[in-house]
Amino acid sequence: IVETGVGIRPAFSDNLPRVEAHGRTVAINGLYRHGFLLAPAMARRAADLVFDSDKPVEFADETDGQRRSA
């Protein structure tokens, strides 16, 4: 095999990352090539979701309509 590729990038159409809780599972996706830089903020957000933190977070959860305007 010389080269492989599928043209899939780990990003959403709005290029914004998402941290979502689904029951007992936390999903962190859409970091694209910036995962190394965003990892500390994403980990903090995931911890806030897991431990039901009431402290303010650096960014708010928006609806899809608000994401499109970003």
Indicate the structural class: alpha+beta
Order of helices and strands: EEHH
Radius of gyration: 14 Å
* Biggest beta-sheet profile: 2 strands, antiparallel
How would you characterize this protein structure?
There is one protein chain. This protein is α+β, with helices and mostly antiparallel strands. It has a domain at 10-56. It is built from 2 helices and 2 strands, in the order E-E-H-H. Strands 1-2 form a two-stranded antiparallel ribbon. Strand 1 (18-22) and strand 2 (25-29) form a beta hairpin. It starts with 17 loop residues before the first strand and ends with a helix. The mean pLDDT is 76.
Detail the topology: elements first, then pairings.
Blueprint: E1 18-22, E2 25-29, H1 35-50, H2 64-68
Q: Notable features of this structure?
A:
70 residues, alpha+beta, two-stranded antiparallel ribbon, 2 helices, 2 strands, 30% helix, 14% strand, elongated
Brief sketch in words of this structure:
30% of the residues lie in helices and 14% in strands.
